[in-house]
Design a protein that fits this description.
Shape: globular
Number of domains: 1
Largest sheet: 2 strands, parallel
CATH topology: Four Helix Bundle (Hemerythrin (Met), subunit A)
CATH architecture: Up-down Bundle
Structural class: mainly alpha
CATH class: Mainly Alpha
Strand order of the largest sheet: 1-2
């Protein structure tokens, strides 16, 4: 049976090298009372906070900075939860994989919900499409991992960290231009997501097709 590789991501993001240096420098100094599972479960708090700030931002756009704060805090806890577990050898490898990525999906949904509450009327279906895309990206990664034991979450150097930076930048733009920009931004974002998702699915299925054909060729050669 192959060794579980869910804690070993394939590929690298643009900010990956700097992120790794920062993480390795900080992990030894994290207080021992803060465990890896504490960091993982805080995403529940950040998700709830995101929805609350989205609701408040309907009346006062300044609350959008609260959403940016939730994104930053979720980034920090998500960055260190696995690193703390490996550094202290807590052994929560599969639990961490399951809970970390399940809660990542919950946080992603909370962002869509928050923006949907802030957006002008008539955009419900666009946000519904974004939630579907968010789930489909994760399904693609997990099915690909189940088939190859290689966990890949990067798309041409773009990973979760770069996406978070994009969200914070977008929040800044929304604060200065107001939520009317959603009428342009949301449809464009949905189109980009659909295109990227389509390409990733094509790439995954082609890779698996080749693996299957190689296995069949090897099996046929042994039979002869």
């Amino acid at each position: 049976m192959a060794e579980f590789a869910g804690d070993k991501k394939v590929g690298q993001s643009i900010l990956g090298p700097a992120e790794t240096k920062f993480k390795n420098a900080c992990v030894p100094h994290i207080p021992k009372c803060i465990e890896t599972y504490h960091l993982t479960l805080t995403t529940i708090l950040w998700s709830a906070g995101t929805v609350i700030f989205g609701w408040l931002a309907k009346e006062n756009i300044a609350w959008i900075w609260g959403i940016s704060a939730m994104i930053l805090l979720q980034y920090i806890t998500d960055l260190f939860d696995g690193a703390v577990g490996r550094y202290r050898d807590t052994g929560l490898v599969k639990w961490g994989f399951f809970m970390d990525h399940f809660l990542d999906f919950i946080f992603s949904c909370s962002l869509v919900v928050a923006y949907a509450m802030m957006a002008p009327d008539g955009m419900t279906y666009y946000f519904f499409g974004l939630i579907i895309c968010s789930g489909a990206f994760m399904v693609n990664s997990f099915l690909n991992f189940a088939s190859t034991n290689e966990f890949e979450i990067f798309f041409y150097g773009i990973g979760p960290t770069e996406v978070r930076v994009g969200y914070i930048a977008m929040n800044t733009i929304i604060f200065f231009l107001d939520t009317g920009i959603f009428k342009i931004w949301v449809p464009v974002l949905l189109i980009i997501n659909v295109i990227a998702l389509t390409f990733m699915i094509w790439k995954s299925q082609w890779k698996l097709w080749q693996i299957d054909m190689e296995a069949k060729k090897e099996k046929d050669s042994k039979a002869t």
